[in-house]
Structure formats: C-alpha cells, structure tokens
Amino acid sequence: MRNVRIVRIYLLGYTLLIIGALLTLWQGGVLSHLSTVWVLAALVVAIGLGIMLFLTAGKPVLPRED
C-alpha cells in the first residue's frame, strides 16, 4: 500500500511540474511561436521521461529464497 502512495505523490508532483513549466512558457509568450504539434510532442516526451526516471530510480527488488 505504501508503494502505491509513493507513486501517486510522485505523479502528482510531476504533473504539477509540467503544468507549471507550461504556464511559464505560455506567460512568456514562447508557446505562441510554436505549433500545437510541437507542444504536444514535447509534453509526451516530458511525461515519458518522468516515467522512465521514476522506474529507474527505485531500489532493485531481490527475490527471497525460501
């Protein structure tokens, strides 16, 4: 149960990070110079990168020998 809670907290924090970055770029006028396709592609890459970083940062699970 604890692992599920950690995953949810991580995903919430990462989502807030992506939203904050997008809002900053929008306020700065950067997004108005890019097409929607490039913005969506960058968003998909950022989400994929976050998932990969989360999965590789975990501790390895060693199988128990009974």
What do you see in this structure?
The protein has 66 residues and is an all-alpha fold. The chain has one domain. The protein is built from two helices and no strands. The protein is elongated. The mean pLDDT is 82.
List keywords for this structure.
single chain, 66 residues, mainly alpha, 0% strand, elongated
Overall average residue pLDDT: 82
Any idea what the radius of gyration is?
Answer: 17 Å
H and E string: HH
Question: How does the overall form come out from the CA principal axes?
Answer: elongated
Q: What is the beta-strand fraction?
A: under 5%
What is the total tally of β strands?
A: 0
- Structural category: mainly alpha
Number of helical segments?
2
Helix content: over 70%
Domain module tally? 1
Unreliable spans are: none
Short synopsis of the structure:
The protein has 66 residues and is an all-alpha fold.
Mind sketching the topology for me?
Layout: H1 2-27, H2 36-57
Helix pairs in contact: 1-2
